[in-house]
Design a protein that fits this description.
The structure holds 2 protein chains of 2 kinds.
Chain A lengths: L5 E6 L3 H13 L5 E4 L10 E5 L4 H10 L6 E6 L1
Chain B lengths: L1 E2 L2 H24 L10 H11 L13 H16 L6 E2 L3 H18 L3 H9 L5 H20 L8 E2 L2 H4 L1 H15 L18 H18 L3 H11 L3 H20 L16 H18 L3 H9 L3 H19 L8 E3 L2 E3 L5 H20 L7
The chains are: A alpha+beta, B mainly alpha.
Chain lengths: 78, 366
């Protein structure tokens, strides 16, 4: 089985916010990717953003500046 | 820190797919029409007929499977503390989208779930629908990537989130205690049904498993194209494989494009009907099955969508938009399908979806 690593998972209220986050991170050259929201976080079937843990502070600031609303920041093994 | 294992992600979805497949086989064996163990569109259409919202005499029955799915999702959501009453994400648009998803599905004669069940029965006419569903999802994804959104939902009072489950309880009470108030088909697909208890239990089981696994036909394909995530799609495939094996074992597998039960061979309109359903499902954030499950979890927007689908079913049969099955009349094979009103409705549906898609993109400067 593939080894699991701790990741930062950002959840959103809408898919559009997840897409906007992807665009923002591509523009700012911030590592990360879209994932389906892990079942352990919610029963919703939306899209989340997975990034390295160390980007938590940067992402929080960048998303705030870009007015992208988030649902939550979570740390889980992926 | 919470642990998330790949196996833990796949297994519930695959098990749910197997449960749905087995339940569909049992329901068919016990009375439901062939290749229609489950069909969210057909069953909501039957409910609309039973309530007198349309007058197509052959498709009127209160389907306990639908009641069971919503209540099963509710029971599961409450038991696992996942019941969240929320709403406010463009309910009017969702109602209209629900209506056109239903019209598209009834043009083909089945929702995405029945499409898979038909494929599992060897019905090759459903291949056109599968391709159409894929095409519709890809169109929807173009708009999702451009930032399409119906807006976020907000927490609401618990009672608001219980509206659709409450409606389902009323339907069950009517079916059990006041059936004389309802309309029931005496012939055709509406007259063919499994015993109430069996249908209700099958629906409850599917509702519970689908709530736990988040099974979604449209979401599965969306995740594959958008993120190369095959988790939800594995449920889709599990249903297909289970139904295929079940039909082979029961001797009811018929690999053919002719004389399939409740199916027609107007491939272009099957393709377009399911393209409409696929596109609409992506804009809604889930297929018709998923809308039932979400409404059981307290999502008022999904409840509105379900009411929209019931309204769409009534429109489809009152205005002759739905497809009719191929049949054999006096030894001659007669191709069914849709007539001009149905073709016009599908075209109008594409225009409406395009308008909704374009008007819910981010404005310049957002």
């Amino acid at each position: 089985m593939r080894a699991k690593h701790p990741r930062l998972v950002i959840t959103f209220h809408t898919t559009a916010e997840a897409m906007a986050t992807e665009q923002l991170c591509l523009r700012e050259h911030l590592e990360g990717k879209l994932i389906s929201v892990p079942r352990c976080l919610t029963s919703d079937c939306g899209i989340a953003w997975s990034a390295p843990l160390e980007l938590r502070k940067t992402l929080k600031q960048k998303l705030q500046e870009a007015a992208i609303e988030t649902d939550g920041f979570h740390e889980i093994l992926l | 820190m919470k642990k998330q294992f790949a196996l833990r992600a796949y297994l519930p979805v695959i098990i749910t797919g197997v449960v749905v497949g087995i339940a569909a086989l049992i329901l068919t064996a016990m009375g439901n029409p062939k290749n229609m163990g489950f069909c969210i569109a057909c069953f909501e259409r039957d409910i609309a007929g039973a309530l007198g919202l349309h007058s197509a005499a052959v498709v009127q029955y209160i389907r306990p499977e639908i009641i069971g799915m919503v209540l099963g999702a509710l029971i599961s959501a409450v038991a696992f503390k996942e019941f969240r009453a929320k709403s406010g994400s463009s309910p009017a648009c969702r109602f209209v989208l629900g209506a056109f998803v239903m019209i598209g599905a009834l043009v083909f004669l089945g929702c995405p779930l029945r499409m898979v069940i038909r494929l599992g029965g060897g019905d090759l006419t459903a291949v056109a629908a599968l391709l159409g569903f894929l095409a519709g999802i890809l169109v929807g994804l173009v708009f999702l990537k451009k930032g399409f959104t119906l807006g976020r939902a907000y927490p609401i009072r618990r009672g608001e989130g219980l509206m659709l489950p409450g409606f389902m309880v009323i339907l069950l009470c009517l079916l059990l205690f006041a059936p004389q108030l309802l309309k029931f088909s005496e012939s055709g697909p509406g007259s063919m049904h499994a015993p109430i208890a069996v249908a209700l239990i099958a629906g409850l089981a599917v509702g519970v498993f689908a709530q736990r696994s988040r099974l979604c036909m449209a979401g599965g394909l969306r995740d594959v194209f958008l993120m190369k995530d095959f988790t939800l799609l594995s449920g889709f495939l599990a249903i297909w494989i289970t139904i295929t094996i079940g039909n082979l074992v029961l001797g009811s597998y018929n690999l053919s494009a002719l004389s399939q039960p409740v199916a027609h061979s107007q491939y272009l309109w099957s393709f377009l009907g399911m393209a409409l359903a696929g596109w609409g499902s992506i804009l809604l954030g889930g297929c018709p099955l998923r809308q039932l499950i979400l409404s059981g979890e307290g999502n008022g927007d999904s409840a509105v969508t379900v009411f929209g689908m019931i309204f769409g079913a009534a429109l489809a049969h009152n205005f002759g938009l739905a497809g009719s099955a191929d049949s054999v009349v006096d030894g001659v094979y007669k191709v069914g399908g849709i007539k001009t009103p149905g073709m016009v409705a599908v075209c109008i549906g594409f225009v409406v979806l395009l308008v909704i898609s374009l008007t819910h993109l981010p404005k310049k400067g957002d």
